[in-house]
Amino acid sequence: MSNKRPLRVAVTAAALIIATLLFVYPFWWMLVNSLNTAAEVFGPPALLPKSWRFENYAEIFRVQPFARHILNTLLVAGVGTIGNVLVSALSGYAFARLRFPGRGFLYVLLLTALMMPIEVIIVPLFFQMRGWGLSDSLYPLMLIPIFGAQGAFSAFMFRQFFLTVPMELEEAARLDGLSYLGTFRHIMLPIAKPVASSAAILAFLATWNTYLEPLVFTTSVQQYTLPLSLSNFNDSYGEPQWHLQMAATALSIIPIMVVYMIFQEKVRDAMVNSGVKG
After folding, report:
1. Which residues form the domain of 40?
2. How many other β-carbons are positioned within 10 Å of the β-carbon of residue 265?
3. Residues 148 and 37 in one domain
4. Residue at 170 is within a domain
5. CA 185, CA 257: separation in Å to the nearest integer?
6. Which ranges in 218-253 belong to alpha helices (H)?
7. Average pLDDT, stretch 154-163?
8. Which residue(s) pair with 240 in the sheet?
9. 134: which of 22, 129, 216, 276 fits an S-S bond (Cβ 3.0–4.6 Å)?
10. b/e string for 19-51 if b means 16 or more Cβ within 10 A?
11. What is the phi-psi region of residue 136: left when phi exceeds 0, alpha when psi lies from -120 to 50, beta otherwise?
12. Residue 51 in contact with residue 35, Cβ under 8 Å?
């Protein structure tokens, strides 16, 4: 039995190394070609760049306002994430603890938002935002993560968590003279930090990577976010400039990698807490 264990460990390690290389190679290929010319991108595969064109990274800021697109994405993801957590925490607490007419029906309506792909409601949303005078702006991109399917999912997570909190905590808060809002602020929200961090991470990742909403709600280049910006590196004939797209993509994933490296444990917990049970 002892002789089989080293062999099993070696086979497992080899399998993990091969799987890691399979996942890492596309990312490495992107980095290599971000330093090549457009013609070299479709040349024979190589592990190192052929031209080492670091000027590709400077050129992406000359071709279009890429710095503005990064700021737009940070603004949309930041506001959308904060709003998502605050609104969903309040609605989750209301559905878990408050008794009001139509609560069950409204909760069912909330859950239907989880079943609605954005492709189904994007046209009505477009006309609604245009009626509010919000077309070709970043406001729809901030509102959708708060009140759309991602917000409904976060509210569901908070409700399921608040249902597990003992009623004695709220009763003690009532004896101390706290209102519902005071109980939420001083008692419920602090103990819901794990769920809040999970909702924030999931909302940030979803908002950062969204493509369809910016495509529909923005028309001017100044309002683009990164996913839309990455598909806009074309030459005068409309052909993609792949080497610039690779460089821009490499820069665009840096914030996500930084967030993951800093909060990797919370990202893992986010995936676990997303299935929290009541």
Report:
1. 4-54
2. 9
3. no
4. yes
5. 32
6. 226-230, 242-252
7. 90
8. 234
9. 129
10. eeeeeeeeeeeeebbbbbebebbeeeeeeebbe
11. left
12. yes
pLDDT tens-place string over residues 170-215: 888 878 888 888 888 888 888 888 889 888 988 998 899 899 999 9
Coil, strand, or helix at residue 234? strand
Please indicate, yes or no, if residue 227 is contained in any of the structural domains. yes
Q: Are both 136 and 16 inside the same structural domain? A: no
78-87, 186-195, 266-275: least confident range: 266-275
Other C-beta atoms lying within 10 Å of the C-beta of residue 115? 9
- In terms of phi and psi (left: phi > 0; alpha: psi -120 to 50; beta: otherwise), the region of 118 is alpha
Same domain, 191 and 202: yes
Closest CA to 158 of 120, 212, 195, 127: 195
One domain for residues 26 and 79? no
> How far is CA 194 from each of CA 67, 156, 204, rounded to the nearest angstrom?
33, 14, 15
Q: Is 22 found in the same domain as 122?
A: no
Q: Is residue 27 part of a domain?
A: yes
Residue 82: other Cβ atoms inside 10 A: 16
Residue 66, domain member (yes or no): yes
Number of domains in the chain: 2
Mark whether 85 and 151 lie in a shared domain.
Answer: yes
Which amino acid is located at 240 in the chain? Answer: P
User: Which range is least confidently modeled, 55-69, 105-119, 208-222?
Assistant: 105-119
